[in-house]
Specification:
By secondary structure, this protein is of the alpha+beta class. It is built from 3 helices and 7 strands; from the N terminus they run H-E-E-E-E-H-H-E-E-E.
Length: 130
C-alpha cells in the first residue's frame, strides 16, 4: 500500500524511535496546524501556519499540478480514493481563496507559491511576489 519509499525513508526513522506520529487535527507550537486531507493516500495531511495575521497552507499531495486549480476534478494517477480527493481539493481551494492564504505546493515548479483567486465559478493561481 505504501510503496518502497515508505519502507526506505520512513520506517528507519520509526524503528530508531525518532519519529513522532501526528493525528489531524493537531496544533504544534501555537502556529502550525495539522489538518486532514483524505483522498490521495492513507494518512494524508496538510499543514496550516499562522504568523502576524497571515496564513500559509502547505497542501502536500492535494495538488500535483497547477492544472488542478482550474480543473479541480482532475486527479493524479496516485489518488487512491478519487471522489474523496476531488472533494478535499475543492475544500482546499475554497478555503485558500476565502482566507487569502499563501499556498505552498510540493509539486509545482517556479514560481512555486502563490494565491488562489476566484474567477467566475472557478479558480486561478496568482504567483506570489517576492
Amino acid at each position: 500500500m505504501f510503496g518502497d519509499s515508505f519502507f526506505d525513508s520512513v520506517m528507519p526513522i520509526i524503528e530508531e524511535g525518532l519519529g513522532v506520529m501526528m493525528e489531524a487535527p493537531q496544533e504544534i507550537a501555537d502556529c502550525l496546524v495539522v489538518e486532514p486531507a483524505p483522498g490521495h493516500s492513507p494518512g494524508q495531511v496538510a499543514f496550516r501556519v499562522r504568523s502576524r495575521g497571515e496564513e500559509g497552507l502547505f497542501c502536500g499531495d492535494i495538488l500535483h499540478s497547477p492544472i488542478q486549480i482550474v480543473r479541480p476534478d482532475v486527479n493524479s494517477g496516485y489518488c487512491i480514493w478519487e471522489d474523496t480527493a476531488r472533494t478535499t481539493r475543492m475544500e482546499f481551494l475554497n478555503r485558500a481563496a476565502d482566507r487569502e492564504a499563501l499556498i505552498m505546493p510540493v509539486h509545482f515548479g517556479e514560481p512555486h507559491c502563490g494565491y488562489i483567486r476566484r474567477q467566475g465559478d472557478g479558480f486561478l493561481f496568482e504567483p506570489a511576489q517576492w
